[in-house]
Amino acid sequence: MKLYHSSAETIQGGGYADPKRNFELIQPHLVLLGSTVIENFAAGLTRDQLTDGFMSRFSVFPSSATPDPGDPRITDVPAGVLDEICAWRDFFEGRRNLAKENPVPRVLHYTEPAWEELKAFRLFLNKLPDRDMWIRAYIQAKKSAILYQASKIGPGLTEIPLIAVEWGIALVTYQVKKTLYLADQFIADSQFEADQLELGRWMQGKKKITLVKLAQSKFRKWKSPHRQEVIEALVHQRKLSMKVCKGITKPTTILSWRDG
């Protein structure tokens, strides 16, 4: 967390007699990249983390399926990619931690349409009744726009156009909405609510199932009274419908998930 709060400062570490063992970080911007399955990620979250600034620091990219790795092939790196890599290599040559850019960094200007779009986005954010998850959306959109333009132009970029800002805003908006959706799907205040969410996610994939089949599924681990209480809670919330139909030998109870 110290690195997060020191992004506009200089961090010095070591304190060794040998100067080679000491280090200096100018305006550190810590980025951690990790991957996991959504159930494990969401299981460790709480509602408080949606409002205390913890989750607003995350960029979550969920995947709906595991892609087929296919057969590996050896191929040449495209010339355009090599040119971009060489341009950034030359830019950073002898510029450890952007030493030549600090303490006077290069200033990137927004085109007038891009700046107007950013102002409109900030106005939209200020009008939101619940801003906890959006608290960093404005600065993240600006950083994403710089990333977009740097990827398009390379080290020689001097201004940020409208298309880059639109991309940054769209990306951040998707990120926040997706995180809020995942929170609604996984984060619970009690075990009973967690069980409701688990059954709800499962039913969204099944759409319709008999009560007998449900009792034979993964939810057989639940005791019958508890399973019935969870079902009744979802029916009461109008997320699940329960219909008794005439069967061959006895009535059959059918559960159906209500979309929306």
Give a quick summary of the entry:
Helix content is 45%, strand content 10%. With 260 residues, it is mostly helical.
Structural overview:
This protein has 260 residues and is mainly alpha-helical. The protein folds into two domains: 31-61 and 94-186, no CATH class; 191-257, Arc Repressor Mutant, subunit A. The chain has nine helices and seven strands. The chain has helices spanning 38-43, 48-51, 79-92, 112-126, 137-153, 162-186, 191-206, 211-216, 224-236, and strands spanning 10-13, 23-26, 109-110, 159-160, 208-210, 240-245, 252-257. The strands form three sheets. Strands 5-7-6 form a three-stranded antiparallel β-sheet. A hairpin with a 6-residue loop joins strand 6 and strand 7. Helix 4 packs parallel to helix 6 (162-186). The protein is elongated and about 80 Å long.
